[in-house]
Write a structure and sequence with these properties.
By secondary structure, the protein is α+β, with helices and mostly antiparallel strands. The chain has 4 domains: about 80 residues; about 160 residues, D-Maltodextrin-Binding Protein, domain 2, CATH 3.40.190; about 120 residues, Dipeptide-binding Protein, domain 1; about 220 residues, Dipeptide-binding Protein, domain 3 (Roll). It is about 35% helix and about 20% strand. The chain is extended and about 165 Å long.
């Protein structure tokens, strides 16, 4: 047994150690409170302090950012940036880039980008030097000497010289080459005076001759050894063209198994040695489409930067704030041409009656866009245009009187007849939306006069290859290109009615000795005032003979994304001329300080 003394000692020891443990615990608690909890409180205070400063800093940065954004319009601007790719859509097909053969909009566009002419046009469609530095004409306007720019290189690095110019035009003159430009170059003597001077000697004076020098020049060193009969079908034309233009050929991709769904994508890269300045756009891709809707869908899906070939702006795109539509008048005119070789329209009274009976203002309303009206064979602003010598105004009463006097009387069914022959005309136009609208409106207008129109709408291919060649119509609705120069010899001189002619551009088969003399005299005078004077008899004869009705100047519609900057063309001769200043365009943008 444990003695009481030992138990007492154990209890005292236990109480002492318990007391020591309590003292240690109290000390630890005081230490924890003093060194941890108080610091933890301080840490919380620090956190709140830091968080407050962070929130204040964020608020300050946000405030400054919003202020900078708000004031950015005052000290920043959007500036064009070099580089990028312009993707343009076009209706049609690609067949030939060679400027000796490129005729269609697609072919002509590719040719314009790859090749350069001696001269080109500015944004107002005025003639300006390109490969040429200048030209000098003799006093008669029969000999033109062209001085070429030096240090121009072909895309393969070879120098451009007078030999290239001579080769180009002599090849055009060769009937075996079968160039569409053949007829315009007959009788012209071309020779190189030296490496940078070319002389053109014409069979007779011709004031507008420099306007003939805008077609692309091809490389003599690459083509001179190829038989001229093979030129139209060589690979140079479709897969490896070499020019001096703003863009260098890169590739062509063809998709679609047949002609119905065939599509091409022609890729070009910028010519860093371009003589008019390195293009700002790095790459140009032209993509062809068979159908308008397919092209519109590609544009809406942002696969395209721009579109050509539409008659009007689709409603969805018109509402799109990121798109811009350019409506540019062309130096041409849409007319209704009267085939004067047909029995009914050989009578000037009938033709004059049709002029009086046509409400041109009402026709133009059908277009859906604002168009410049035309009232004669020359355009406003051209040398020779005279506002006092224009076609007759709308007057349906006068039209009826002329038809009555010509023996065409209104019968019981409302149609005019002469010796039981109805006054019925075959009216032909191309399959273009605006032409179709005008055709329908004109059909209604002339019906009020008692005239029946049999309207035929034909596709472009049939028009070009058949209708226009054979003059297979009584009345033709069609647009012709005139250009800045007023030389309309090809459209109204009697020599252009010859059935043996390949072009037969005198679509009315108009023959007038007074008009012929005036057209011949006008194109041989260099002085503008004298030219204008010489054209007056032509304007008078045209007004009195009424071989056609001038309606309006056609427009070029260009739809682009807003990022395309630099397209500032005011007036053009044809769709291809939209590319005259392509080297200045950009498709990229950036913000910079003012």
């Amino acid at each position: 047994m444990i003695s009481k003394k030992i138990k007492l000692r154990f209890r005292r020891t236990f109480r002492r150690r318990k007391k020591d443990a309590i003292l240690v615990a109290e000390g630890a608690e005081q230490h924890l409170e003093r060194h941890f909890f108080r610091r933890l409180v301080r840490l919380g205070n620090v956190r709140r302090f830091v968080t407050g400063w962070i929130l204040l800093l964020v608020l300050l940065i946000t405030s400054v950012g919003l202020q900078a954004r708000g004031l950015g319009i005052y000290y920043q601007k959007i500036a064009p940036l070099e580089g990028g790719t312009l993707r343009e859509g076009a209706i049609g097909t690609f067949t030939n880039a060679n400027p000796l053969y490129a005729v269609s909009t697609v072919d002509g566009s590719v040719s314009k980008l790859v090749f350069s002419g001696l001269f080109s046009h500015d944004v107002n469609n005025n003639l300006v030097p390109d490969l040429a530095d200048k030209y000098v004409a003799d006093e008669k306007g029969q000999t033109y000497t062209v001085i070429l720019r030096k240090n121009i290189l072909w895309h393969d690095g070879k120098p451009f010289t007078a030999a290239d110019v001579v080769y180009t035009y002599k090849t055009i003159q060769n009937p075996d080459a079968k160039s569409p430009l053949f007829a315009s170059w007959q009788g012209v003597d071309i020779k190189a005076v030296d490496d940078y001077t070319v002389q053109f000697n014409l069979p007779s004076p011709l004031a507008p001759f420099p306007y003939s020098l805008t077609n692309g020049i091809v490389p003599n060193h690459l083509l001179k050894d190829i038989p001229v009969t093979q030129l139209r079908s060589i690979s140079f034309n479709t897969v490896s063209p070499v020019g001096t233009g703003p863009f260098v050929w890169k590739s062509v991709e063809v998709s679609g198994g047949n002609t119905q769904n065939r599509s091409e994508q022609i890729a070009l890269k910028r010519n860093t040695n371009y003589h008019l300045g390195r293009p700002k756009i790095e790459q140009f891709i032209l993509r062809t489409f068979k159908e308008e809707q397919a092209m519109i869908s590609a544009y809406q899906n942002k696969e395209l930067t721009a579109m050509i070939g539409l008659d009007k702006v689709p409603i969805d795109i018109e509402r799109d704030t990121t798109s811009t539509s350019y409506n540019i008048p062309t130096d041409g005119v849409v007319m209704t041409f009267f085939n004067m070789s047909t029995p009914i329209l050989s009578d000037a009274s009938v033709r004059q009656a049709l002029v009086y009976g046509t409400n041109r203002a009402e026709l133009i309303k059908q277009l859906g866009f604002t168009a410049l009206t035309a009232n004669g064979p020359l355009l406003r602003g051209q040398v020779g245009y005279d506002p006092s010598i224009v076609q007759a105004p709308y007057n349906i009463e006068e039209a009826g009187k002329l038809l009555d006097a010509a023996g065409w009387r209104v019968s019981g069914d409302g149609l005019r007849k002469k010796a039981e022959q109805p006054l019925k005309l075959r009216f032909v136009s191309q399959n273009v939306a605006e032409y179709a609208a005008i055709s329908q409106s004109l059909q209604k207008q002339w019906k009020l006069l008692g005239i029946e129109l049999e309207v035929k709408i034909r596709p472009e291919e049939e028009m070009q290859n058949d209708t226009l060649i054979r003059h297979d119509y009584d009345v033709l609705l069609y647009g012709i290109t005139i250009g800045r120069d007023p030389d309309v010899f090809a459209y109204w001189h009697s020599s252009q009615t010859d059935i043996r002619s390949k072009s037969r551009l005198n679509l009315s088969e108009y023959k007038s000795k007074n008009a012929d003399k005036a057209l011949e005299a006008g194109r041989t005078r260099l002085e503008p005032n004298l030219r204008a004077l010489k054209y007056k008899p032509f304007l008078t004869a045209w007004r009195d003979d009424a071989p056609a009705i001038a309606l309006y100047q056609p427009r070029f519609l260009y739809i682009t994304r807003s990022e395309l900057v630099g397209f500032n063309t005011i007036r053009i001769g044809s769709t291809i001329d939209r590319l005259n200043t392509i080297q200045n365009w950009t498709v990229l943008q950036n913000k910079v300080l003012k």
